[in-house]
User: Fold these one by one.
Assistant:
Number 1:
Amino acid sequence: RKASQTVVTVTPDPSKYGEKVTISASVTDAAGKSVGTRGRVIFEWVAPDGGDGAEASVVDGKATVRARLSRNKDTYVFGQFDDPTAEYGDSWQEVRPRVLKGDQTITFTPPYDLTVGDDQVLVVDTASDLDADVETTTPEVCSIEDVPGGVGVTALALGTCSIIASQPGDEDWNAADPVTRSFGVVRHTAH
């Protein structure tokens, strides 16, 4: 059997947590010539908190998969070439890509104007699925409380109600930029 060499790359490196990366393997013979279109590469991405894998056919000496990687410092990516025709021997490489904290955003239902005593439910989500912290900056005009399906807002007095949502991040996610929404609390009009 001819010797083979597998070189694994992860793009981008470093990547950000939550984004997909491209894991590629180039497979050559001992002289650096492509093995052509034959065999497969078995990929694994492993961390102490879990892992996954996939395989891809080798086409023109390359195999590629897409994946999301863990931010654990011990995460590694492994690629092993396997030639079922046995013309080339197996070869493999392990790499340790860097995964930085991911960026997250907050989406926030646009509120509508209320009359004193009315309420509405706002839905606040983050790209990371971490809970957002929500508070009013105008407690004399409106109050808020957690309710099933979101954040309940009650209009207390005439004026402008301002609500701010934030998410401080964690070991995997950067803090999100705070988002502020405002709406009017108006007088009830007779029909």
Number 2:
Amino acid sequence: LDRLRQARRFRTLQVLAGHKEVSLRCRVARNANTPPEILRDLAKDESCWVHAEVAANGSTPPDTLRELVQGGGYTEDEYEGICEAVAANAATLPETLREIAGNYPSWQSERGLRVRLNVGGNPSTPPEILRLLAEDDDDYVGVRRATAGNPSTPLDTLTRMATDDDLGVRQAARANPSLPDHIKAVVILGK
């Protein structure tokens, strides 16, 4: 009986994924229960809105996320939206995050800043990218704060961030579970 229900759900999602209404396809792409094979098909949809929902879905296969980032035909704003969603997705592979970070060496727009924030906060971000983001010069300092809170930030970088000039960066680094207690004590006491 469960297999029959699953087959019906799959078929229903498959039919809705091909529906002419973009909003319905977006809902299928957003659905956490949508199988990876349907998400792969939706990643080839004509609508960038559907692509953005696929990019945000935690069930989307990592290779599909990479294809979305490498895909063309987007306006700058649409591309930033795709990258923003992929950068926040826990399923994104380190090499995809490296590629996204390389596309945004500094923020030129509010959405570009959010892309960098998401890369800084994603635990899959490679250490060398986290080191670079820890030095980010954005006036908002949000990228450095996100990086300081990332449990994958290298210990040497995290230790340095725990004494940052910005209170929010210091707090995020000191609250990071990857910063050992003995280092927290030394940093807090200023020794």
Number 3:
Amino acid sequence: NEDYVKIVINPVRSIEVTNTPTKTEYAEGESFDASGMVVTATYADGANKVLTDYTVDKTVLTSEDTFVTVSYKGLTVSVPVTVTAVASVESIEITSNPTKTAYLAGQTFDAAGMGVVAHMSDGTSKEVSVYEVDKTVLEVSDEKVTVSYEGKTAEVAISVTAHATFAEGQSELVFDLENGLYTPSPTAGAD
């Protein structure tokens, strides 16, 4: 009987990266990108085959990573990568106070003119234009506004008065452009 099945065992002997990935330099937190990478298996009979069903051991990279391991049927090969640490915010600083620091109770904090700088872990500094403040509508008890950026804080001193009070001989309010407040002024013609 000539009906038989011939089984040929031809195991994979090795794998190698025959074309490195297009991208090998990353910032910490980026995902490994295998685009452009070609992984080739060499079989016991010497035949080669380009693989598409390999796995990689890392997706999101950290600054400690120096390679990514590619695996196929128990065999591995390393792909070198360079991962740069992302600088974190060490502190923030108010470099210039806002134009307006004196308020009447009930007014809203105005950050116009305020300069905020973040000091980074790598020794650099950068201006910050998007940050949070802890107060919007101000009360007489408020003496400061806290500015926050990426978990770091700095304070801006402010003053808040209840309302304008009139002393003897004062009967009108004048708007002071410098501090943005109405202040009492002497009545015209008063002695």
